[in-house]
Amino acid sequence: MTTSDFPAERELVIDRYVDAPRDLVWRCWTDPELLVKWFTPAPWKTRSASMDVRAGGSSMVVMESPEGELFPNPGIYLEVVEGEKLVFTDAYTEAWAPSEKPFMTGILTFADEGKGTRYRAVVRHWSVEDSKRHEEMGFHDGWGKATDQLEETAKSLAADA
Amino acid sequence: MTTSDFPAERELVIDRYVDAPRDLVWRCWTDPELLVKWFTPAPWKTRSASMDVRAGGSSMVVMESPEGELFPNPGIYLEVVEGEKLVFTDAYTEAWAPSEKPFMTGILTFADEGKGTRYRAVVRHWSVEDSKRHEEMGFHDGWGKATDQLEETAKSLAADA
């Protein structure tokens, strides 16, 4: 299914050029020590992350509000194509335990573009209401800021190399 | 996660000895020409089945009521361990398109037992309400009858061999 076949009103998309090589952008998404540096838009923070990056593997990312409140986000990976594609969802907390509220499925693709990366995040929902709510929660701003932080983190790795 | 860790009130289970070899019981679940023979408890029928049996592959089973009304059931496979384990859900219509209503996830396991098969179907739901509704729709009777039909079909294959 191409993106255009899926109902647009249940989908949110970020499509960006990221000024860092594809393998480093991929590492930022799949190495928990890197993910905590960029995943949550400031002033929120990512308190911890553990990730078993394989189809059926679990992930747990704990976000922290400016007031210090913790928000655990359990999920699993549905598809992992090394360096190219990463699909995850909160519909399961592990393989195969349905969560209490399936909210979203993220489909990330990474492609070479010049010296950098074409980074595309397609976020799909089970209902139009959830998609709308996600947008109103500040999806574009939040994922936009997070992607800035992702780019910065990936660039710092390139500088270290 | 073992079954006992998952909330029992969101889970329905069929655990049966099936008097046919494991590879034949597996074939009945994974060959569309066989599945149509047993999948839907009489007097309902299975009108057609198409199945791409691999993780991320789609399936479409069309059931037919005694009045001739057709009920298409799209879903996907989440995990396939040849001859041993089959996991599927209606939460996606294909990889990775969330359906309009995620209702259930089926986790089937097949194990040798004597000359037959220990067949276990664990069906999990996202909500207690859905699990209850599924039970009230006649889950145990329906899956029980379907399992009788499955056994009969698998046995007929053994007789042919």
Automatic annotation (TrEMBL), chains A, B:
Alphabetized InterPro entries for the sequence: ASHA1/2-like_C (IPR013538), START-like_dom_sf (IPR023393)
Family: Belongs to the AHA1 family.
CDD domains assigned: SRPBCC_CalC_Aha1-like_3 (cd08896)
Annotated Activator of Hsp90 ATPase homologue 1/2-like C-terminal domain residues: 19-154
Gene3D superfamilies in alphabetical order: 3.30.530.20
Name assigned to this protein: Uncharacterized protein YndB with AHSA1/START domain
Top-rank lineage group of the source organism: Bacteria
